[in-house]
Amino acid sequence: MSENAFDHLSPVWTHLSNEVIERGEGAYVYTTGGRRLLDLTCGIAVTNTGHCHPRVVKAIQDQAARLIHAQINIYFHEPALRLAEELRRVVPPTLDTFFFSNSGAEAIEASVKLARHATGRPGVIVFQGSFHGRTVGTMSLTTSKTIYRLRYQPLMPGVTVAPFPEPYRHGWDPETASRWCLKELRHILHTHADPSETAALLIEPVQGEGGYLVPPPSFLPGLRQIADEHGLLLILDEVQSGFGRTGKFFALEHFGVVPDILVMAKGLGSGLPISGIAARRDLMERWQPGTHGGTYGGNAVACAAAAATVQVLLEEGLVDNAARQGQRLMAGLRALQVKYPVIGEVRGLGLMVGVEFTTKSGDPDPATAKAVQTRCLAGDLILLTCGPYANIIRWIPPLVITAEQIDTALAIFEKALSDSVH
Q: Class of 54-315 per CATH?
C-alpha cells in the first residue's frame, strides 16, 4: 500500500484512529502493524456475533459460490425466503411481512413511505435526540446533533419534533419525565401536527447516537396508546438496539409494546449490508407495488449472512449472554462512578451502555470523555462517544464477549479514567 493511499479517500469520513485493520476475530481486531485491539464498538453495533463468526462466514462463502446477485424484482431466491422464516422466529407474531434494503437509513425511508401510503397522511413525528440516518429524508428526521444536518437545508417537510424523556438532564424522576413528554406530545397533536395529517410516530426504543438513553417504563406504552387513539402508526427504529443488543432480541420486549412497523439493520447481517422492515400483512398490502424498491435490497449473500446471524444469536445463547455480561459491565461501571464523580450517570440495557461525563456544575464534559477514549485506545481498547455534546462513552461489545474480556476492558477504562482526571 502506498504512503499516500489515505489521500484518495474522502475526508468527509471522520476517523477515531489511523490504524489499518487486517482481520478480526470475536471481540478483537488486528492491525497491519501487529496490534491486537479489544473492539467494544462492534462497527457501531453491527458485529453482534463478533468479528467473522465461523457460521456466518461459512454461510457467506457457501452462498457466494452459488449465487451472489439475484435481483428481487426479477425472481425470488432461497436466502430471502429463508431469512423471512428466521425473522418470524424473533419478531412479534403480528409483524409477519418483510421488506429488505441495504442500510438503516434505507429501511427508515421505507418505513416512512409505507406509513404514508398506508394512512394517506404525510406527517411524521420524531423525538428530540433521535438518529435515523444521513440521507436527505432520514437526516430530516434526525435531531441528535447539528453536524448531521449542517448546511444541507432545505430538509424534507412534514416532520415535527416531540420531546424525549431525559430524567438525568432535567433533574426529574423517570415517571415525571415520562408524563411531561406524553403530555407535550398530546399538546403537539392539538397545536401543529393534526392527527388527520400525521402518519406515524417514529422513535428509537433506546436512543443511540442521542446518548444511549433508556426511556422510563411508561413512555413507550404511552406512545402506543396515543397512536391508537388517533389512528397513527407506531414505528420503532431498532437499527442499533436490535438483535440481542439490550439483552432481549429486540428492545421493545423490555417495554411490552408491539409497533406497527419494526425497523432493523446493523446487527442483522453481522457486517454485510442488509436492513429490513417488518409489518402486518394488511399494512404491506396498502403499499402500492412498484412505488418503492432498489437494485440490491435483499441481496442473496447478505440474506444468507442474516439468516445465519439469527440462528447463531438464538442457538448459541448470545442474547442471554448479553444480559449477563451487561449486568457485569454495569456493576463495574457503577463502582467506578462512586470513585470518580466526573461520571454523572451510567445507564443502559444489556450490552448497550452509556457513561455520561459531567463537570462539577453538572454540565456536559466532552473533554474528559475524549481524554478517556484516547487513553483507552492507547491501551488497546476501542470505545466510541455519542450524544449531542460527545460527552458520553458508549459500550457496544459483541454479544460473544466473555466475563474476562469485560473485566479487562474495565481495568483499561479505569486506568484511562484515573490518568485523565488526576
A: alpha beta
